[in-house]
Fold this protein.
Amino acid sequence: MKRRDFIKDIAAGSLLLKLHPSLLAQKKSVPDLAWIHGDSPSLITREALSSLGGAKRFVSRGDVVVVKPNIGWDRTPKLAACTNPEVVKTLVELCLDAGAKEVKIMDNPCNPARRTYVRSGIAAAAKEAGAKVLLPNPHRLKKMALHGEWLKEWEVYTDFVEADKIINVPIAKTHSLSRLTMGMKNWLGALGGNRNQLHQKLDQSMIDLASFFRPCLTVLDGYRILIRNGPQGGRVSDTKLYKTVVAGVDYVAVDAAGATFFDLEPQELPYLRVAHQKGFGEIELEKLIIEKRTL
Amino acid sequence: MKKERSKKYRAIQAVRILSQSIFFILFFYLLLVTHFPGEDYIGRVEIFFHFDPLLAIATFIASRAFFVSFSLAASTVVLTFVLGRVACGWVCPLGSTHQFFSFIFKKSKLLKPKKNGDNRTAWKYYLLIFILVGTLFSLDLVGIFDPLSLLYRSFVASILPAINLGLSAFIGLLYQVNISSLGDTLVQFFENLAVNSVFRQGFFLGVLFIGILFLNLSRERYWCRYLCPLGALLGLISRWNVMKLKIDTKKCIDCWLCTIHCQTQARPYPEEDWKSSECVYCYTCSAICPTSAVSFPLKSKPEEIVRVDLSRRKLIFTSLLGIAAIPFFRLSPATRRASPKLIRPPGALPEKKFLKKCVKCGECMKACPTNGLQPALAEAGPEGIWTPILVPKIGHCEYYCSLCSQVCPTGAIQELTVEEKTKIKIGLAWVNKNTCIPYNLGTPCIVCEEHCPTSPKAIKLVKKEVKLPDGTIKTPLAPVINTDLCIGCGICEAKCPVVDEPAIYVTSVGESRSETNQLLLDIIKEEEGLF
């Protein structure tokens, strides 16, 4: 092949890729949200990802991926205070299958980390799937410019910033200040410092954090949701078996979908309204392509 | 005559050093693994203490109750009865520590062993009498002086935290020079060790411990020969001492080396001076003898045990002193009113019983996953120094954790299942409306409510009207405590964003273990009467 031809081919190829990536992909258009209902947390997670085009769409060969579950509380899975361990485990498996070099699991919990990691079931599940489970490392905290409207800078665990890809895996729970805690609220777990002070302007903090962290995918665990006494619960009767996972790239849309788990309109949550106004994502679910399925 | 040191006794000496190392490592290992083991229940990591007859006897007399686990101490008693104080020389981890430092000091010529003995060896017996007289009157001071308690407490509250801080600084350095992968590995390792590194009296306890180690600059194993009350007790128990010192006078060259280097001033030379109740069977004398003149042949024939001369006058005086000291240790305002800061770990016995059993070892403080359990200073009166109290400002009582109750070697904290533990009140939380953010700034906060572990939550959020300095009125959600649901765990205080003096705090009132330290009479709680 002549050099000229080669350059032509490259140019044509890249133009094709840039303008019509779907030409090379499957014919079917990829949905904005995968909304899967079913009995097995691991199967619905798997299905959600394949509906979105498979894990390879998000994770490239050789990537270091950080999966950020909510491991906030010293509670067992049946109390629905932390992300379902099966969901986390499945995501780790999918990332590694997609060629990730390393998958790290980390959160900065409210209760002692060693306890929450173990008792949430997440440490064991993630380790079994081959992830590196990291306790929050104070030496990796770094004050970073967040460029938020209110939060100009804060201490962030650099693990979340240095990773090639981050996947946010929150659980859907009630919360006495933000009403619900899902994907956007989950970023408080990536912070150090006296983060309890952020509650004085929690909605604004969530907006500022959401514009800082860049998850390639958000998977909302709605397998067992917390409907009372949030964000910790404490009794099984505080939870509701909802058997749903919603996944998507648009994290605002994912949280908006989560609001409906609790019979709330996304507009009723101030932080979602503002996030939408700022163009972070869509909250009008009817405008989205949603693939809803029951397994 | 051929001059040669005894190969046999040098070998025995080596075995003895090995034994000391093994027991020290075991002690240290059990200390290190005393933390959340990944499940609700931890094994008998406190087992070392149960072999200690001093703790067993003192706790038994003081509390008038026998704690079954202490039956293991009988083995030490039998061992000592037959063999003498081998436990001091071969097992005791504090003894090994002292000997190690004595060895270092001797090698570095900082300590020059002396030929002449003195009568300070009697001190430890007087100290023992002083402690035991106290226990007769339910004053339990044994934990202050017991070697295992002393060592454990010093390691937990001072030495380990200091090492931890030092290592943390070292790891920080690794990150600065970009060896972060090694740093990460080390951090994960040490995080998993869960060393509690904040102790209010860490410096004080450390100075005390290092001071005791420095005593070895004056005399080898100073603590063991002059001060240790457990050593004194074992000295009194020893009866048979089947291995008896023998000096072959034909070989002996009167060099005094054996007596100069005797670790505990048992004075092997001259033979008739040998005090078998002071001998810890370290075999230094027989190993150091240049002509192999010193040996310890087995002699089952009971001979009279040579003991330290204790003056009857001083014994009576010490006993009287012990009795006279008791009221001084009880001079505390806590006898008039319950101390608000005296928040005991869940499962702790009622205060009076608790003080009779707690040996101040620090096991509970090591096991505490939040570092909230701290050595008391004055909260429990002088007799309660270094007993555990919860300081929620430092760390809270973790809801599903009952480790402190499981590791307590004396039952001062009654063993609880996690289920039982969650039902125990250790105090009550109060909102300080003077500093609470919603009550003052009209700004939302809810951090205490969010962290409250009970279900339903003991902290309710209620709309409160707040007048701001400019006259505007705001109605934020503000915390209000439901005292029936509150268990006093203190996570609200620990996490309160008012950083210097938390705006919500726990006091001991309402604690389940006390009948009197209560807020309301039960009859008032029950129903509304005529009035």
About this structure: Residues 147-176 of chain B form the longest helix (30 residues). The beta strands of chain B are 246-247, 294-295, 373-375, 388-390, 428-431, 459-463, 466-467, 473-474, 477-481, 504-507. Chain B touches chain A through 42 residues (CB under 8 Å). Chain B has a mean pLDDT of 94.
